[in-house]
UniProtKB/TrEMBL annotation, chain A:
This is CRISPR type III-associated protein domain-containing protein. PROSITE patterns: EF_HAND_1. It holds the Pfam family RAMPs. InterPro entries: EF_Hand_1_Ca_BS, RAMP_III_fam. It comes from Caldicellulosiruptor hydrothermalis (strain DSM 18901 / VKM B-2411 / 108).
TrEMBL record, chain B:
This is CRISPR type III-associated protein domain-containing protein. It comes from Caldicellulosiruptor hydrothermalis (strain DSM 18901 / VKM B-2411 / 108). PANTHER family: CRISPR SYSTEM CMR SUBUNIT CMR4 (PTHR36700:SF1). Transmembrane segments: none annotated. Residues 21-381 form the CRISPR type III-associated protein domain. It holds the Pfam family RAMPs.
Length: 304, 412
């Protein structure tokens, strides 16, 4: 397989649906693989006039989660921005979920600055309060008050810009290359409320990944199988089989069919959350993790 | 392949000028001295008109415009319901066939088939989202309210969501940001902006030295306000100093020539002149805008005594009259969804949607946008300008090259 690293610059605030607490629509602090898959597939299908929908749904499934990256370079030069880019990869520290700041060329996540989720949200997340309006008398509609969270394209503290980084893999076919990515995905809309000035991402950089170690740091091998190092924070969700011993959290992830007003759950399973660490395999005597080698990357999740 | 991309989205720039102060509230937060604050960009702290407010209001006005033209031709809802066809789409077609004289005399976007079942409730939030699309035009909720019909040009253009079918809509709005902000100065009212804002809006182009001379000779001059550092201050001491007040701020300034495409920012009789534009540094812009917002202190009146009501004093802020905004509008061609016709019915063309928006925008000039529109707030004049695509640019480059050839290399 060919793997590409995609970096998008954020052109508008984005809302990644996470939870609804009362009137608050919370945003996630990263873009899950399935959300990015949805945005890519939708854009691709629109270009192709929605031909071969079922076939096209498979093109971009080998995709990782996308994580935020901060660039504080005042220089507009692309290389300068790239070299100053600090990726925010998920990690738990003392039981708290957050991100660790890792320069783009580095893979050592241990000795870098930890940014808790609260700190990230303080710096990059804001909220707007809104109501619906009655069409006849134009007053605010009863019980329509809602708050909507979004991730800002720039830091509230130091004006640093936000980028999004992740990987995508293609089968070795000639037409799936860098050009295809640049041609179709120069502009992308991701997340919620994209009709109202949210969700615009612009493709900033595409690079083919040739080194195995670059892929390993994203929990994958060249062929898309899982590669999970012990004690290393996960960048993809890992399907929980009940055999793993891990530190972190477990999440119930449901895949929805959003084609109807009341979305339907098409599949649901427990996954070990990103940022968690697998510390041992309870079933394995010699400590190998061969069974995880049968897990494949699928929209930000590793599963059999 | 590039051409394909450019033909995909139809993009427009929306320019707006506030005819009244505009108040779009944040929902009653009290920050500092102001009780009713307005929506701001969280990073720049600049007031803005959110895309959702623009979209919601425009949706309403499109319904008003549509109904004003077709309401006398529309059938009673029971008439449509009683037509013996399995789907609403087919019932509508049948009704149009039988009443072709009446319906077919309509032109343009008004004649869109689904408009047969359009209602005022196609604006605003849907009251019957739990209904199936096939029942949506007729069904009422417990309070007797009906919801989005799901068939008219408004529902197709702006989106709707029903129990069995959700449609995202085809028109995408961005926030309207401040492009030029009016401030009182000792030279009269000037419109302030920044280089960054002009670049974002695609209006800015710094001239080379020769071009600068040309533009000066043609009188294209305006102020450029700079905060001077010590070195510049010392230089300025030697030469003649110029100052300008922007509200309460008094700042040293220099005059420089720039090329700004002000042709795009025209509103009928209003035209922004280059000499009335002031470019300020990025870091000052928000400060100047926020200290020159319209702030009104009001009090409720006791109807019996005619005196001010105890504890009823409140303060509101608003974006002042004369502020010029810009934002984006794109229309996605979703004609590929034609196969869903049995469910959603036909889809409007991009042209029909732009027509609908253009012909309904006049309501912003009377009914306005945001809050307190019954108290002298909210009127806004809008202009829609088609964005130049790569195809257009290539064509224009080609035509320039052609013209060069014809005139022997001399630019016309």
């Amino acid at each position: 397989m060919k793997w590409y690293r995609l970096i998008f610059s954020q052109a508008q605030p984005i809302h990644i649906g996470s939870f609804i607490w009362g009137v608050v629509n919370e945003t996630a602090a990263f873009i899950p693989g399935w959300t990015m898959w949805g945005a890519l597939t939708n854009t691709y299908l629109r270009f192709n006039k929605f031909k071969d929908i079922e076939k096209s749904k498979e093109f971009f499934t080998k995709i990782t989660n996308f994580y935020p990256a901060k660039a504080c370079s005042k220089n507009e030069d692309k290389n300068q921005i790239l070299s100053s880019l600090k990726c925010l990869f998920p990690k738990y520290e003392k039981g708290e979920f957050g991100f660790v700041e890792v320069p783009i060329s580095e893979f050592d996540e241990d000795n870098n600055n930890f940014v808790s989720l609260d700190e990230f949200r303080f710096e990059f997340v804001d909220v707007i309060v809104s109501t619906a309006v009655e069409p006849v008398n134009r007053k605010a509609k009863d019980e329509s008050l809602h708050e909507f969270e979004f991730i800002l394209p720039k830091s509230k503290i130091d004006n640093c810009s936000l980028y999004w980084i992740g990987l995508i893999g293609f089968e070795d076919k000639e037409e799936y290359n860098e050009d295809l990515l640049k041609r179709y995905f120069s502009t992308l809309f991701v997340g919620g409320d994209i009709k109202y000035g949210y969700g615009k991402l612009e493709l900033f950089d595409v690079q083919e990944i040739k080194k195995e170690e670059d892929l390993n740091s994203w929990n994958i091998k060249q062929d898309g199988r899982a590669n999970i190092a012990l004690e290393s924070p996960l960048k993809q969700y890992v399907k929980f089989s009940g055999q793993e011993c891990f530190e972190g959290e477990i999440k119930l992830i449901a895949e929805f069919d959003f084609s109807k007003n009341i979305s339907e759950v098409s599949r649901a399973s427990y996954y070990i959350n990103i940022g968690s660490k697998i510390v041992s395999n309870m079933q394995s005597k010699n400590g190998d993790y061969n069974y995880l080698g049968n897990y494949f990357l699928y929209k930000g999740m590793l599963k059999p | 392949m590039e051409k394909k991309i450019n033909k995909w989205d139809i993009e427009y720039t929306v320019y707006g000028i506030a005819m009244d102060p505009i108040y779009i509230g944040t929902g009653g937060y009290t920050i500092g001295r102001v009780d009713n604050t307005i929506v701001r960009d969280p990073i720049t702290k600049l007031p803005k008109i959110p895309g959702s407010s623009l979209a919601g209001t425009w949706r309403y006005y499109t319904v008003l415009e549509l109904l004003s033209k077709i309401k006398d031709r529309q059938p009673d809802m029971n008439t449509v319901k009683s037509i013996e066809k399995p789907t609403v789409v087919e019932k509508i077609k049948e009704w149009i066939e039988k009443n072709s004289n009446e319906w077919n005399s309509l032109t343009g976007w008004y004649s869109f088939n689904g408009n047969v079942v359009a209602k005022i409730t196609c604006a605003g939030q849907d009251n019957t989202p739990q209904e199936e699309l096939s029942n949506s035009p007729y069904t009422e909720d417990k309070e007797g309210k009906t919801g989005h019909c799901g068939h008219c040009i408004v529902c197709k253009g702006f989106g709707f969501s029903k129990k069995d079918f959700s449609w995202q809509g085809m028109i995408y709005f961005s926030d309207l940001h401040i492009l030029f902000f009016p401030v009182f100065t000792l030279y009269g009212t000037k419109w302030i902006t920044t280089e960054e804002v002009l670049k974002c809006a695609g209006l800015f182009k710094k001239l080379g030295d020769n071009a600068s001379d040309q533009s000066q000779s043609s009188g294209q001059q305006f102020f450029r306000v700079l905060i001077q550092n010590e070195e510049k201050e010392a230089q300025a001491e030697k030469s003649e100093k110029e100052y300008i007040n922007l509200g309460w701020m008094y700042l040293p300034c220099t005059r420089e020539s720039f090329s700004i495409d002000l042709e795009k920012v025209k509103f009928e009789n209003f035209e922004l002149k280059p000499e009335n534009v002031v470019i300020v540094p990025e870091k000052l812009f928000s400060q100047i805008v926020n200290s020159n917002l319209e702030v009104r202190t009001s009090v409720s009146i006791n109807p019996i005594t005619g005196a001010a009501k105890e504890g009823a004093l409140f303060t509101s802020e608003a974006i002042p009259r004369g502020t010029i905004f810009y934002g984006d509008l794109r229309i996605f061609d979703k004609s590929a969804f034609a196969e869903l016709e049995s469910k959603a019915g036909e889809l409007p063309s991009s042209c029909a949607l732009i027509e609908a928006l253009s012909e309904s925008k006049h309501f912003f000039e009377t009914l306005g946008i945001g809050g307190m529109t019954t108290r002298g707030f909210g009127r806004l004049k809008l202009e829609l300008k088609r964005k130049e695509t790569e195809d257009d640019k290539n064509t224009s480059i080609q035509s320039t090259e052609d013209s060069k050839t014809v005139s022997g290399g001399e630019q016309r």
